[in-house]
Amino acid sequence: SKRLCDQECCTTCISTLEFSVMGTTKANSPAIELRKVSKSYDQRIVWKDLDLVFHLGQIYVLHGQNGCGKTTLLRLLAGLTLADHGEIFLLANPASIGDQRAQDLV
Fold it and tell me: What is the pTM for the complete model shown?
């Protein structure tokens, strides 16, 4: 497991399981990349300067306590929530809110 956040109160972790992608040469290519992504609600910081890459050919498990940002991360990845700062890329292209490609990948 890799901790996604260094905040003492946060225990959000991500585990990776590898699997083969049949018939594709893009296995292990970045599918989704977050660069310095931050998100807060009112005064509560959920994610700050998050750098994370999800590769094709891997399964990811997101786990942590209630309220530690799991759903917010998934909403950011699916293009359902706008980040306050940072960039999100889908298959090496900038993503936008409501991007169908994000929903297909997540």
Answer: 0.69
